[in-house]
Design brief:
Blueprint: E1 8-9, H1 11-18, H2 20-27, H3 36-48, E2 53-56, E3 59-69, E4 74-85, E5 91-99, H4 108-124, E6 130-135, E7 140-145, H5 148-167, H6 185-188, H7 190-209
Parallel strand pairs: 1-4, 5-6
Antiparallel strand pairs: 2-3, 3-4, 4-5, 6-7
Helix pairs in contact: 1-2, 1-4, 1-5, 4-5
Length: 210
């Protein structure tokens, strides 16, 4: 169990799974560079982060719901949580995370959503079997089942996040195609790091041949 001072943002799970270096730059070095994609995403989240709730056709919808898990050491907000009654009259939470872009092949968005479900389970004592990701580019929901595999990934990523933040070390830049969509690419300069290592390897090899 973690205490209040040790809680880390739920959103950091997504950053870590996308790129550990990006995660450290944002959450330790407090680096942030806004581009068109991040600006559009921020504006989209402002609409759901205003908070409030509504009830319609037997469904409660809560916006900007605060979340916390002392077991995982996470804190944050759910964009939207829909509550529907089950056969026993219990309100079952269904978290919905809004994303600006398109669905991703990796589980970074799903793990972030699963963390919200784990927080809701800890806070309410009610099982949360599924949720959804809403992508702005496609204007569609992607249903996500919180199976054991995704839950294990989310819990393991939360553990790794705490270890990474406690270590306070910034991972070396590694260029990949995904870097082109990162707002921190000019600050991170992953291509320069790759060139530097290539030069170092060449010089090392040249020294062996001399």
């Amino acid at each position: 169990m973690y205490n209040e001072d040790q809680l880390l943002p739920i959103s950091a799970l997504q950053h870590l799974l996308f790129c550990p270096r990006q995660c450290v730059l944002i959450h330790i070095e407090q680096a942030w560079v806004e581009n068109r994609l991040t600006a559009e995403g921020r504006i989209g989240h402002e609409k759901v982060d205003k908070g409030g709730a509504e009830t319609r056709e037997g469904r409660k919808t809560v916006f900007g719901l605060p979340l916390r898990s002392l077991r995982l050491g996470l804190v944050g907000k759910a964009d939207v949580v829909e509550f529907e009654r089950d056969g026993d009259g219990n309100w079952i939470p269904f978290p919905v995370e809004h994303k600006h872009g398109r669905p991703k092949q990796k589980d970074c968005d799903r793990a972030q959503l699963c963390a919200q479900a784990l927080c809701l389970e800890e806070m309410t004592g009610i099982s949360v079997p599924e949720g959804a990701l809403f992508y702005g580019k496609t204007r569609r929901r992607e249903d996500v089942a919180f199976d054991e595999k995704l839950r294990r990934l989310t819990e393991e990523t939360a553990r790794q996040l705490h270890e990474l933040i406690e270590a306070g070390l910034t991972p070396r830049a590694e260029y990949a195609k995904k870097c082109e969509s990162c707002s921190l690419i000019e600050l991170c300069m992953p291509k320069m790091s790759t060139v530097k290592r290539s030069v170092e390897r060449y010089l090392s090899t040249a020294g062996d041949d001399a």
